[in-house]
């Protein structure tokens, strides 16, 4: 009987053991994909995660501008409230600008005060939605959600998405390296302070205690001073004129915080909050914050993007103009080359027609220039050159022209009698040839240019000259008559 009873018991035991093994295997297998997923992703993100887990702060690459004058940045947290209008009245009277780190729930409850802050020219910062530490610092996702919720409220009321953020209670013992890194990935700038007015140490801090705290605080070139304009901070309102007067007498100016102002930030200390983050969670938060940054660029990023766009546009326009200019110059060069290759057709009325090859003449200053000897000999005249005196004598019919290259002068003779003299005459020496203008030379020899065609595809000159046989048959005609006939 005993053996018959034990057999079923042994079977059940084996079955139970088998089920336990199956359960353990399934649990192990079920964990494997999650572990693999944690190991997936961007290597840079994994590296950042490891460094942040070790407590190392990874600061974003951002440049700031130091104010030229000693500057105080008055900041007010926890509002807006019914006290905010009193603060704004004082700031308006003192002609001072400040920065208000507002709570989303307070902005929702006091929209008119928020609007006045903006309309009066002050800056807005985000102070989360409800200021509840346990919610904000239990995990980053909750902190992020509150910042986003508060931002939506502010945006709906005044159309602004604050880039500046102040952590309730400050970052010391609240922020870890992950908080800083993820907020900076989203483009936010975290501001603590370097002067605490002490107006929130407890309820109803006396005015004189706040004043003594401020007065005892160390001076710096840039001072970010913490005040509160939330309910219960009447003392902060009362002491404010005295604080402003104090810093003015010390030579400080007042300004709002901007993205160009280097933030005052506390050093990272061990958080008093217990929280854990896996690589998978971190990767999701990095994606979330970076997507936000891409969707909400800062004013500086927008300005930089616009400057880059304008620079690219101007560069493209300049490149297009340069290209067009280059093409115009190339076309002009082609036209010049083409024109330079055109022969000059010369028609002598009552005489012969001949062509002057492009290698012999050129266009210069709207006139045709060519060698004196070539022109005179083509017309049937002669040219004699005296190298020792750098002079040339051109003879055509009853006309003689003496060219003096040294003095740049021309003497004109008719029937051996000098009839004209020209100083600073158009002539120059090129390749051992005297180059002269066609029209002036023809006129000086008693002729005239009756027509000239200078087209891109054709060049022609027609001239009227006294033929040489006319001079031989009428060598006693007076010079003045000859000039009259040739003009």
From TrEMBL:
<keyword id="KW-0732">Signal</keyword>
<protein>
    <recommendedName>
        <fullName>NodB homology domain-containing protein</fullName>
    </recommendedName>
</protein>
<dbReference type="GO" id="GO:0016810">
    <property type="term" value="F:hydrolase activity, acting on carbon-nitrogen (but not peptide) bonds"/>
</dbReference>
<dbReference type="InterPro" id="IPR011330">
    <property type="entry name" value="Glyco_hydro/deAcase_b/a-brl"/>
</dbReference>
<dbReference type="InterPro" id="IPR002509">
    <property type="entry name" value="NODB_dom"/>
</dbReference>
<feature type="domain" description="NodB homology">
    <location>
        <begin position="70"/>
        <end position="255"/>
    </location>
</feature>
<feature type="coiled-coil region">
    <location>
        <begin position="307"/>
        <end position="338"/>
    </location>
</feature>
<feature type="signal peptide">
    <location>
        <begin position="1"/>
        <end position="36"/>
    </location>
</feature>
<keyword id="KW-0175">Coiled coil</keyword>
<dbReference type="GO" id="GO:0005975">
    <property type="term" value="P:carbohydrate metabolic process"/>
</dbReference>
<dbReference type="InterPro" id="IPR050248">
    <property type="entry name" value="Polysacc_deacetylase_ArnD"/>
</dbReference>
<dbReference type="Pfam" id="PF01522">
    <property type="entry name" value="Polysacc_deac_1"/>
</dbReference>
């Amino acid at each position: 009987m005993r053996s018959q009873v034990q057999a079923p018991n042994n079977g059940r035991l084996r079955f139970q053991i088998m089920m336990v093994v199956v359960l353990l295997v399934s649990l192990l297998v079920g964990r494997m994909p999650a572990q693999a997923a944690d190991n997936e992703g961007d290597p840079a993100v994994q590296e950042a995660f490891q460094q942040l887990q070790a407590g190392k702060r990874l600061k974003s690459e951002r440049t700031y501008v130091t104010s030229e004058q000693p500057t105080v940045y008055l900041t007010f947290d926890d509002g807006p409230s019914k006290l905010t209008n009193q603060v704004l009245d004082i700031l308006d009277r003192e002609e001072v600008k400040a920065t208000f780190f507002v709570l989303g729930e307070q902005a929702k409850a006091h929209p008119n005060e928020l609007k006045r802050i903006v309309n009066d020219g002050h800056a807005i910062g985000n102070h989360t939605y409800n200021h509840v530490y346990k919610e904000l610092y239990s995990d980053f996702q909750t902190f992020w959600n509150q910042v986003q919720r508060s931002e939506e409220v502010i945006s709906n009321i005044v159309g602004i998405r604050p880039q500046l953020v102040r952590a309730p209670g400050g970052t010391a013992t609240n922020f870890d390296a992950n908080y800083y890194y993820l907020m900076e990935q989203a483009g936010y700038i975290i501001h603590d302070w370097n002067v605490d007015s002490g107006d929130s140490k407890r309820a109803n801090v006396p005015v004189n205690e706040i004043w003594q705290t401020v007065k005892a605080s160390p001076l710096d070139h840039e001072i970010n001073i913490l005040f509160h304009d939330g309910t219960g901070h009447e003392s902060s309102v009362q002491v404010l004129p005295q604080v402003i007067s104090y810093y003015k007498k010390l030579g400080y100016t007042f300004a709002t915080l901007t993205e160009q102002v280097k933030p005052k930030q506390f050093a990272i200390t061990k958080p008093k909050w217990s929280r854990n983050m896996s690589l998978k969670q971190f990767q999701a938060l990095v994606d979330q914050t970076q997507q936000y940054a891409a969707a909400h660029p800062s004013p500086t990023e927008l300005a930089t993007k616009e400057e880059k766009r304008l620079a690219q546009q101007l560069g493209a326009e300049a490149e297009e103009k340069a290209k067009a200019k280059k093409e115009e110059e190339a076309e002009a060069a082609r036209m010049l080359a083409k024109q330079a290759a055109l022969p000059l057709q010369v028609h002598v009325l009552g005489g012969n027609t001949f062509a002057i090859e492009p290698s012999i003449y050129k266009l210069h200053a709207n006139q045709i220039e060519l060698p004196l000897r070539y022109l005179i000999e083509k017309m049937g005249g002669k040219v004699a050159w005296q190298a020792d005196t750098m002079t040339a004598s051109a003879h055509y019919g009853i006309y003689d022209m003496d060219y003096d290259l040294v003095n740049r002068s021309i003497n004109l003779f008719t029937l051996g009698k000098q009839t004209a003299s020209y100083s600073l005459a158009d002539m120059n020496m090129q390749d051992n040839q005297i180059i002269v203008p066609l029209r002036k030379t023809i006129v000086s020899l008693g002729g005239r240019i009756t027509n000239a065609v200078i087209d891109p595809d054709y060049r022609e000159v027609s001239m009227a000259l006294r033929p040489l046989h006319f001079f031989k048959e009428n060598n006693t005609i007076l010079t003045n008559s000859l000039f009259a006939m040739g003009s």
